[in-house]
Recover the amino acids of this structure.
């Protein structure tokens, strides 16, 4: 990597992986390549070398031709095997610019990468939230400003996305908590609940640490210990807190019922989107 190459983050080892990803994606995609962006903790300024991923989005001019997908998969196989420290922590997607502008659940599947695995998948409703983060805080590695490619996301759209994630992903864990037997996943769950509660209350999105500090003050002493221990993971000794984590998920789901948006509200939001078209 040349000395005058752009440095999108304050972390040289992360930048090394990003430059390798950028060069490889541009080679494979050619004229289809539009831009490479970061969201998540690297965009919010809360990157933690002990537990964060590299959340990225590659924007393409149109859907990637099927004949280029094997080369794209090979690129990520090489990156994972490169020995670069952060190559195995890449988590992201390749999305056509028209599909990025606003979320549509029936959009075509996109290439996705998650810690070495390469696959095609449709974006779930959490991409309403990711689009908002990209638009507001996305880090440009290469390409035009993300604000030019993404419509504003209404606060009620963010609330509905959170409610959908709570119902579809987290509610079933009350019946089958297998994932939550990991202390790491318990911490992740608690911090995610803090973010969900913040978004429901304020109609905005903040980082997990910011949400944890807000929740610690807003929810009172009853939940202080479970939030503090989740925030401290993995630095402090971590006793199992499965029951407390399940209670916190249950509390968040119950709180979410107060924020269900009536059908009229959904219609007004849909009309406002159409009027912006």
């Amino acid at each position: 990597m040349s000395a005058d190459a752009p440095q999108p983050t304050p972390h040289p080892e992360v930048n090394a992986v990003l430059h390798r990803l950028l060069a490889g994606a541009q080679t494979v995609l050619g004229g289809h390549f539009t831009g490479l962006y970061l969201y998540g903790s690297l965009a919010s300024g809360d990157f933690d070398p002990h537990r964060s991923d590299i959340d990225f989005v590659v924007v393409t001019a149109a859907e990637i031709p099927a004949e280029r997908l094997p080369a794209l998969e090979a690129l990520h196989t090489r990156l994972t095997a490169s020995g670069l420290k952060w190559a195995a922590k890449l988590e992201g997607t390749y999305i056509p610019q028209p599909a990025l502008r606003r979320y549509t659940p029936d959009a075509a599947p996109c290439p996705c990468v998650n810690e070495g695995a390469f696959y095609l998948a449709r974006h779930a409703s959490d991409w309403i939230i990711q689009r908002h983060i990209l638009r507001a805080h996305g880090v440009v590695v290469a390409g035009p400003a993300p604000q030019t490619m993404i419509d504003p996301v209404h606060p009620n759209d963010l609330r509905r996305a959170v409610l959908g994630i709570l119902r579809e992903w987290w509610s079933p864990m009350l019946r089958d908590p297998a994932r939550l037997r990991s202390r790491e996943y318990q911490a992740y769950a608690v911090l995610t609940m803090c973010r969900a509660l913040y978004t429901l209350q304020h109609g905005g999105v903040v980082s997990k640490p910011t949400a944890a500090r807000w929740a610690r003050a807003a929810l009172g002493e009853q939940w202080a210990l479970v939030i503090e221990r989740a925030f401290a993971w993995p630095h402090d000794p971590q006793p199992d807190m499965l029951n407390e984590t399940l209670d916190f998920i249950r509390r968040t789901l119950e709180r979410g019922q107060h924020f269900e948006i009536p059908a009229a509200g959904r219609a007004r939001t849909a009309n406002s989107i159409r009027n912006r078209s």
